[in-house]
Amino acid sequence: MRTTPLALSLGLVAGTIVALSAAGGAQAATGRYEAEVSPAVCDGTIDSDWSGFSGSGFCNGTNAVGAHVQFAVSAPAAGTATLTVRFANGTATARPADVVVNGTTVAAGASFESTGVWTGWTSKTFTVPVAAGANTVRLSPTTAAGLPNVDHVELTTADAPAPAGPVLYVSPAGTAGASGSQADPTTLASAITRIGAGGTIYLRGGTYDHAQTVTVAPGNDGTAAARKTIAAYPGETPVLDFSAMAESSSNRGLALNGNFWHVKGLVVQRAGDNGIYVGGSDNVIERTVTRFNRDTGLQLGRIASGTPRAQWPARNLMVSVESHDNADAAGENADGFAAKLTTGPGNVFRYAVAHHNIDDGWDLYTKPDTGAIDPVTIENSLAYTNGTLSDGTVNANGDRNGYKLGGESIAVDHVVRRSIAYRNGKHGFTYNSNPGSLKVSENISVDNAQRNYTFEAGTSVFRGNTSCRSTSSGTNDKLVGDADASNQFWSGTNGSRCANHSGALGWSFASNGSLAVTFGGRPVTW
Q: Where is the CBM6 domain (predicted)?
């Protein structure tokens, strides 16, 4: 298990995350166990040659029946837990393995399917029995091909009582007219219309097949003191799957148009447009994964074309969220995250990770029709390999930047700090014609295809930024504004700080939600 999380918060993390959780609410305890960290055992080698893993490496098992990887995990009480295995299989065929917990096979011949490429890390979950205290988890291959590469496992267990406020339960088999008790679960759409302020909607694990947008309507609000919550049931992973949708701008997945909601722990995938669209204000989106959607994974914008500017989404916090492999048919619109065109003040992305999206990691685009948006803050975040999907697909129409911070020469004073851009298909950080006074500080940009930083107009302020390249080739950074000697931009050579930012990229979320990033196994700190 990781013992040294990335020191990003400087006092912000614990207070913010705890305060945003519903008072007295049920929580899920998640422990992460890295394959390269003792007492884990890898019957093979610990490698770091394929980027995208967490920690400092991954288990590359020997290609043989029974050549296993084993983890020592801990549970606070006996019962069931969700075991999540993060793996990559760059071959064309599945690599089956037995999942063995405390000596008992709980999933025989589980299929660890092809991920297309060895950098195509993905996760598979299992519901497993656990004993109180120490447990062992072993993945044992059942064919001579051996295991996929195994990055880590996570064990999620319940560790707190149910919330004091009203509760409704939802399951894939729930019905709209059901009471919403654990024994008689309802649907998400029904629960959203019935839950009161301070209440929690728990989604049981499993796949929820939807053909229509699930909407929190305008006016369906919590309060600052009593948010409405949609959360994964402790220890389980609900997946909202919108595969039945056609690609269309009207076919979003989850549309959050109310205020003072907290959405936590959901996977939203394969929507015909955005996975999650936030039109409301004062919401928290936490530990969600938006993937394989046919426009931007998680986007903020006004509810309708007639929504007045005063009601554009404001003061939303996106924290410990991941968005990847979002791609539209044209290959030019689907980003990881977007707060563009029509967003109000105070929106923040913190500990967010955007990777392998067909267009950009972040898009803060503006245009004359709607004018300037309010400044957005991006902090302690990561954008890597945007412009290329996990399966290697590239579309020439995509912009392929890590952080695209403007559009059409409209000035907006965004804040980007302590964030990382790595090997994106065009620029790492780009003003994208924004002539404003951006605050760009303590960021790291490495090996992006064109420039690591490109700011060609405006009065932006640059402090403590680092730009690195693993070879002597590359385009020099371009800075217009106030850049002092605290920066180490690239103009043909690396600065001294680049020695700490070489090698394969690894990342993970710590138990408190903060983002831990490594280069070549070395933790990034500020």
A: 31-156
